Backbone:
């Protein structure tokens, strides 16, 4: 939001300066004044400097949204928290989906700033040997996607996400082998350390086993 305001502000200044020159470029003696190249150039340079990260941010959100929509089986929205939004964020969760008073989830999730950074680094990597933070980041997107499709129980959403981590990784560009390895790592390395409320009822032939082909067990 801050960068957007700065971008708009400097574009507005560049426009005002240019328009003012057009209206006053000829003085009373008929002389044409020089175009304010330095002022307008500096304004445009700042605007471009703001536009680049904004474009990269939008591109990341679009890519994550495409992957989540594929796993969800329908259109969903993904918002990556910005650096500015972290200033007022007091929550410890890695992502969240809002629910209406009637118990209906929004088809939109917010993924926290650090997690989106890990997703960005994984997307730009060769995906052969992801760090644990990157593995967790892909799973967070899977987990929040399960909330967006209507699962409110955290343990059930965690288990459903586990069984779709490989699908999510593939939707985001990993090969089937890389995707399956990432899902298996979360299952054997991260899931056992999850706090109470997120575990239980998950595993082969368990309560929430959906017998999906890409399940990590």
Residues:
């Amino acid at each position: 939001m801050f960068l957007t305001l700065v971008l708009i502000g400097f574009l507005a200044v560049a426009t005002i300066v240019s328009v003012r020159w057009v209206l006053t470029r000829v003085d009373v003696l008929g002389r044409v004044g020089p175009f304010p190249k330095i002022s307008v150039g500096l304004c445009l340079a700042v605007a471009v400097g703001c536009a680049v990260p904004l474009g990269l941010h939008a591109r990341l959100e679009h890519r994550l949204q495409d992957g989540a929509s594929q796993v969800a089986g329908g259109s969903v929205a993904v918002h990556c928290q910005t650096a500015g939004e972290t200033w007022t964020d007091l929550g410890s969760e890695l992502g969240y989906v809002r629910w209406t008073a009637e118990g209906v989830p929004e088809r939109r999730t917010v993924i926290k700033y650090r997690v989106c950074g890990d997703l960005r680094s994984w997307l730009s990597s060769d995906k052969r040997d992801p760090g644990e933070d990157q593995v967790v980041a892909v799973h967070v997107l899977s987990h929040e996607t399960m909330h967006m499709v209507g699962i409110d129980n955290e343990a059930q959403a965690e288990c459903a996400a586990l069984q779709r981590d490989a699908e999510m990784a593939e939707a985001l560009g990993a090969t089937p082998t890389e995707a399956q390895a990432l899902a298996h790592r979360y299952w054997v390395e991260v899931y056992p350390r999850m706090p109470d409320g997120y575990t239980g009822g998950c595993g082969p032939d368990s309560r929430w086993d959906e017998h999906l082909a890409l399940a990590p067990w």
